[in-house]
Design brief:
The protein is α/β, with parallel strands linked by helices. The protein has a single domain, classed as UDP-N-acetylmuramoyl-L-alanine:D-glutamate ligase, CATH 3.40.1190. α7 crosses α8. The two termini are 24 Å apart. The structure holds adenosine-5'-triphosphate and magnesium ion (MG). The site of magnesium ion (MG) has 4 residues, from loops.
Length: 306
């Protein structure tokens, strides 16, 4: 059995430190390259694995060097990789160019991420997963992956698998009509405040109530420096964040999700889940990188949050 299985894009971020970001017809030089495995759902699953949860992942890589880096990295982090599909084509990656002044230019290649067909997914995963965590696919090369997530939600409903869903801006921009069936089958919806208000065209408190009335069980809204707001329709709680020195908020939302889902799987109260989410995010934002600072099981125990 797996406590949590991620289902989303797998990307290898390649950070190129360059002398300059070239314009048309110009040339620049690469000083250093850093490789960082990423993808929102993948980040959250790594966070859960570090906290001692049994984890796996539904996703697709190309049969290439980047794909092997992504899979090897999951293994090192204790994430099962038996449900990852290796297909023909390129693995998803983002090329991030950073010059000496810190200016950035980014090129994203969704690669085979967008091509997952539902029938490529080994159905055994639906016998083994307690919870499936969904995040967005870019859908530049087709919407098969989005459609397969919708089908996964239907199966999860039949089998009593919990669905947690962080739509990110990419899915929010698809609009409520397209997300409606997924939201109805969602156990925990995990947007940030801006995304939620954009999706529902109302303030986050009313929007959360509306989502609960649509069938979603819990809405946990990430509120940046204000912490989080969580409701299940009966209780509504705002949980203050931890006061820390913020260095880099990349991946803060993914780290929050890991903490919140951990609390949920342990059967904790809404307020406690929100507090653990805030805590895991607070550790992440004190370091540079989407997966930096995520606490191990022992560090978490030592912090006395539980
Ligand atoms: N300045 C801050 N101080 C303390 N905690 C913070 C701060 N900013 C963010 N956090 C924590 O990180 C969580 C997630 O941040 P945020 O609300 O920015 O999510 P997000 O917009 O989904 O992030 P992401 O850009 O990673 O998708 C917050 O709920 C909070 O717990
Ligand atoms: Mg987010």
């Amino acid at each position: 059995m797996f406590d949590a299985v991620g289902f989303g894009a797998l990307n290898l971020d390649k950070i190129f430190m360059v002398d300059k970001i070239p314009k048309k017809d110009e040339e620049g030089f690469v000083r250093k390259i850093e490789l960082h495995p990423g993808g929102s759902s993948a980040n959250t699953i790594v966070g859960l694995s570090k906290l001692g949860m049994r984890t796996s992942f539904i996703g697709k890589t190309g049969n290439d060097g980047d794909g092997r880096v992504l899979i090897e990295d999951f293994r090192r982090q204790g994430v099962d990789t038996s449900f990852i599909i290796m297909g023909d084509g390129r693995s998803g990656n983002a090329m991030i160019f950073v010059d000496d002044e810190g200016n950035r230019a980014i090129l994203v290649d969704p690669g085979v991420n967008d091509t997952i067909e539902f029938n490529e997914i080994n159905p055994e995963v639906f016998e083994k997963a307690k919870l499936i965590h969904l995040t967005s696919f870019i859908c530049k090369n087709g919407i098969q992956s989005f459609e397969s997530q919708k089908m996964a939600v239907e199966i999860a409903k039949e089998k009593g698998i919990y669905i947690t869903f962080d739509p990110g801006l990419i899915y929010i921009e698809r609009g409520l009509k397209e997300l409606e069936t997924m939201i109805r089958g969602t156990t925990i919806f995990l947007p940030n405040r801006k995304e939620l208000e954009l999706l529902m065209n109302m303030d986050y408190v009313d929007a959360s109530r509306e989502l609960i009335s649509m069938g979603c069980k819990i809405v946990a809204v990430k509120m940046g420096a204000e912490g989080c707001y969580v409701t299940n329709g009966k209780e509504e709680v705002t949980v203050k964040p931890f006061t820390v020195e913020v260095v880099d908020t990349t991946g803060a939302g993914d780290a929050f999700n890991a903490g919140f889902i951990y609390g949920f799987l342990k059967g904790y109260s809404l307020g406690k889940c929100g507090r653990i989410g805030n805590f895991v995010a607070s550790r992440n934002i004190q370091k540079v990188g989407a997966r930096a600072g995520l606490p191990s099981k022992d560090e978490f125990a030592d912090a006395g949050i539980e």
